[in-house]
Write a structure and sequence with these properties.
- The protein is an all-beta fold.
- Strands 2, 4, 5, 6, 9, 10 and 11 form a seven-stranded mixed sheet that branches. A four-stranded antiparallel sheet has the order 1-3-8-7, with no helix packed on it.
């Protein structure tokens, strides 16, 4: 199983970024997929989860700003991040049960 994230970078407060996770060796359509993040000096935390039967869970801190989605044909899971805040700065990880990607850095700063 390989999960490869992309789309991170530097954004200004209020800006947007779209993270993408390409999965191989696992089908995103039949697994619970999630995005976690680890802010500098803090523990990893759940950002958004897309469960097998479509239930979506968001951290309170990102509700209304972030959207998780998956494309079964492309075997990808995306995280659209709007209204970015400095506190969204973190290393973002794509996860599947028992597997983690290498992470992509998101920095929100003016």
């Amino acid at each position: 199983v390989l999960l490869v994230e992309s789309g991170g970078g530097l954004a200004q407060p209020g800006g947007s970024l779209r993270l993408s996770c390409v999965a191989s060796g696992i089908a995103v359509g039949v697994n619970n997929m999630a995005w976690f993040r680890q802010p500098p000096g803090k523990q990893r935390e759940l950002v958004a989860e897309l469960a097998l039967f479509g239930k979506i869970t968001y951290a309170d801190s990102v509700k209304g700003r972030f959207t998780i989605s998956r494309d079964n044909a492309k075997n990808t899971v995306d995280l659209q991040m709007n209204g970015l805040k400095p506190e969204d700065t973190a290393l973002y990880y794509c996860t599947a049960p028992g597997h983690w990607g290498q992470g992509t850095q998101v920095t929100v700063s003016s």
